[in-house]
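Hey, can you fold this?
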Amino acid sequence: MYSNSSVSEAQVVIAGAGPTGLMLAAELRLGGADVIVVERRAVGTVGESRAPGINARSMEVFIQRGLGAEFLSRGKVLPGVLFSGIPMAPHDLDPGWPAALILPQHETEWILAARAVELGVRFLWSTAVVDLHQNDNGVDVIVEGPSGPAEIRADYLVGCDGGHSAVRRICAVPFPGYEPVSYWVVGDVQLDSPPDGNGVFGRNERIGTYQISRAEPGWFRLSLMRATPPADRNAPVTLDELREVMRDGLGTDYGLSAARWMSRFSDGFRQITEYRQGRVFLAGDAGHTHSPIGGQGLNLGIQDAVNLGWKLAAVLNGAAPDSLLDTYHDERHPVASAVLQLTKAQTALIKPGAQLDALRVVAADMLAVPETCLRLSGILSGLNLRYPLGDSHPLLGRRMPNLTLSTDQGSTEAFDLLRQARPVLINLGADGLTGTPAPWTDRVDYIEARLDPAPSTSSWDLPVFGDVPACDAIFVRPDGYVAWVNPAGALVANDALNGALGRWLGTADSAVAGRI
C-alpha cells in the first residue's frame, strides 16, 4: 500500500498522548515493550486544565511508579471528596486516608510525557490514525502526518484517543448509551472582574450548580450549565457563547476577556460493549464517555492503562498466554459501568430545580453519616475497588496497602517495591515459603520482611480497609492489586500459590518460551 520507506515497526502503537496513552506507554516500556505513540496534536501544544482531579488511587499509582513527589510538588492536595459538589471528609474518619490532588491536565501530561521519553517511548506528533487492518499476526496502522501517509506494523494497537476515538470508529465498535438532554460550557478563561477575587462555587434556580475557580495564576476554570441547548452541539465553543451563557445564567460575564481552551459537555453517557477487538484495545474515554461531574474520567483512564500495560507486556515477551489479555475487559468494563451509574446520579444533582434543591439537602445529610461517607468516598477515590479474584481473604483482589516493611537491608514501603511494575511476592514470615517457586523465579521479585510497626498477630487495622485478618505472605500484581494471600499462621498452600502465579504470569511452558 505504501513504499517500504514509509513503513516502520513497533510492538505496540498507542493512538493518543493524553494521560491514558502516556501512562500506558510508560507501563509498556517498564515491561520491555517497544512502543510508538501517535498524537494528532503538535508537540508543545498549549495545555488545558480539562481534567484536573487526580483521585487517591491514581495518586497511589503515581507514587508506586516513583512519580508521587513530582505530582505533589506541582498540585494542590484536596482536603476532602466531593459528591456532586457536596463535601465529604473521609480524612476526619480515617486519618490514614490517602490524599487526592488538583492539577491541570497539561501538567499531568507533562509529567507523564517526560517519564515516557525517559523510558524510551517513540512519539509521532501532528499525526493521526486514519485506518487499520488486523489479522492473526498483527495490525497494520495507517497514519497521516506532516510527511504524508505512512504505515506502522505492530503486534497490537491501543486506542487512547478520547471520546471521539478514530480507532473506535474504524473498528466499528458498538457504543451504546444515552443521548444528552442538558449541556454545560467549560473553559480556561481570563476574567477582568472575577467574583470574590478568586472565584465562586455556587448554585441558582436557573442553571443549578456552577463553578468559577482559580486554576492557575491568571486563569480561571469555568463550568456552568446552559439554560437552553446549543443550536449546534458539534460546533466549536466561542468566546461569545461563553459570554452569552454566563450573562444568561449568572447575570454577568465577570469581564470575560480571553480563553485558552473552551469546550462543552453533556449528560450523555456511553460505553463500548467490548474493550478488546482482536489485536486492538480501547482505553480511557475511547471506551467510555460521561459527564465529568465527579472527576472520574482521567482516573478511569489511568487505571485502564495500568491494568492493561503489564498484561500486554507479559504476552509480548512470551511470559504469559494471549488469554491474559481478556482479563482487561473482564476487570475494567464493570468498573466503568459502575462509575457511569454513579456519575449519572451526580450529574442529575447539579441541575436546577426546587425538587433537586431538596434532594441535595437530603443527600448532604446522608453523606454526613460516617458509613455512607466512607463507602462513597472509597468508590469515588478508587480505593474500594475489588477485582473478582476470590473471597478467601478481604485483601484478595484489592489494592496492596502501603505497609512499612523492615528487611535485612533496611526499611522500605510496599509501594516502593512496585517501582519497576514487576510482580512481587512478600514473605512476612510464612511457614514453608523460602522464595518464588520455579518456574517464576526470574519473573517475580521476592522479598522477606517484617511489618513495622508489628500489628496484632490476629488482625490488622489498615487505613481504608479497617480491621482485616492478618496474613504472612502476599503476592502483588504489577498494577498493585493483591492476587494471592496466605493467612497468618497457615502453612503455605503451594497449589494455591502456584495457581495464582500461573494464572497471571503463565505456566512453565510459557516461562521457557519467554527465554527463547
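Oh, and this one too while you're at it.
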Amino acid sequence: MVEFSSYKRNTIIEAIKQENLDILVVGGGITGAGIALDATTRGLNVAVIEMQDFAAGTSSKSTKLVHGGLRYLQQFEIKLVAEVGKERAIVYENGPHVTKPEWMMLPFHKGGNFGPLSTSVGLKVYDFLAGVKKGERRQMLNPKEAINKEPLINQNDLKGAGYYVEYKTDDARLTIEVLKKAIEQGAHAVNYMKAVNLLYDESGKVCGIKTHDEISGELHEIHAKKIVSATGPWLDELREIDHSKKGKTLHLTKGVHLVFSQKDFPLKQAIYFDSPDGRMIFAIPRQKKVYVGTTDTYYKADVIDPKTTVEDRDYVINTINSMFPSLRINKDHVESSWAGVRALFSDGNDEKPGEISRKDEIFISESGLISMAGGKLTGYRKMAEEAVNTVLKELKHEDLLYDAPSQTRHLPISGGDVGGSEGFKIFKQEKLKEGMDLGLSKDTVTRLIDLYGSNISILFNIYQESIENEADIDPLVLAELKYGLNYELVYKPVDFFVRRTSALFFDIDWVKQHKQAVINYMAYH
C-alpha cells in the first residue's frame, strides 16, 4: 500500500526518488491532484510534489463552488459553459459528500446587469448547454416570490429573480479527496517539497527536478520521463528556469471573500448579485456562517500569502450593503476572510481582470516541459484528462507506447464510494445513526460525514479509541487529527485547521478552543 501518512514522510520521499516515474507533477492543487489520478489510473507511474501543503494556494481560496460558469455566457464562451456544466455533474456524482446542490437566486433590479427577459433566456440556454437535470432547471420568480425566498434583498426597483442550481463544495477537501484516490491507485505525493531547479539530459530535454525539502532542508533529485507543471501562480517561475517563458503572459488577479456570523447576517438563501460597479458577487450561507465574494483585481504582491486589504474589505462590505441595506454591515461584523490568487494567461495587457478567459491551456517547451495553465475548479477532471493525453502523445514520440483512455469519468474519489448522489442519501442516514449511537450529536455527525464520506468508518473507529485516551485533548478533535496525520499527510497545525477541516474560515471559535491542544499533541507525536 502506498503511504500518505505524515509519520511516513521520509519513506514517501525515498519511494518517489527510487520510482521509475513516467510523470512528475509539480503542484499539489486541484489540477495536480487531478493529473495524478488520471495518470495513475491509466497505468502510469506518477508522483506529486508541492512546496506548501496540498491545496494551500488557489485551490483552497476559491468561492467554493463547483459551478457551471453562468457569467461566461455574457462573454459568449459557449463551449466553456457547456463543458464545465457537464463536468459539474460528474464531480458531484463522484464525490457527493464534498459537493452539494445549492439553489441560487439571481435578483434583478431596474438598471442592473440582468433583466427578466435576458435572465430567463440566459438561464434557459445555461440549462441546455450544461445538461442540467430536470429537477434542477431554472425557475423565474416575480418580486413577491423573490422577497419570500430572501427578505433581506434590496426591494427597491426589484423586478424579480432567476432561480437556478449551483453546487457548493469544500475546495481544499475536494483536492485532498482526489489526491487520496490517486494515492490509493498507486501514486505518490509529498507536501513541503519545493522545486528549485530543472534537470536536463544530454540532449537538452528536461528529465527531472531538483527539490528542497522545506521541512528537513535537504536537497533531492527526482527523475521522470515527463515533468508537468501545475503550479498556478508560480507557473512562470519554472518557465523562466527553462528559458521558455514566451508567448502568452501570466496575469495574476486576487479574489477576496469575507465571512460573517449568521447572527449578524441571517441569510437563508444563496444569492448571486451585481455590485454597484457591475461585478457579480456571491453571498452563500454555510454552516452557521455567511461568506461573500469575490473581488477581481490585478495583483503583484506576495503570491504565497496574499492579504485582504482594507480596500478589499470595504469593497465587499459596500456590495453587501447595496444588496442587503437593512443589515448595515460594517468592518466589525467580519469574522474571518481569505484571499486567493488566480493565474490567468493572455496575449494582451489591456483587458480588465474579469475579461480574461478562464479556459485552460497547455504549453510544451522545446525541452519538453509541460505547463498546465488557466482553468477552473469545476473543470479539473477534464483538464487532467487533456494533460495526460498530451503526456501520452509526447511519450509516443519517444517510442514509449502508452494508449490507455481516461478512467476517471465514473470513478468515485476517496470518500465517494457511496453509490453516487442517490446512494449517499441512504449512506448518510445509516452513518448518522451509527455516529449518534457513539454519543455524537446529529449536527456533528452530519459535519463529519460531509467531510469524510465513506471514510467515516475509519474516523468512528479512531474516535472510539480516543474516548479512552487520557490525552489533554477533546476525543473527537483527537480522532480528526489522528485521521489527518495518518491518512491525509497533515504535517503542520495550519494544514489541519485550514485545509482538512476548513475550521479557520467557518468555525474560528472551535479553532481558538482547540488550537493549543492540537499544537501540543503534534509537537510530541
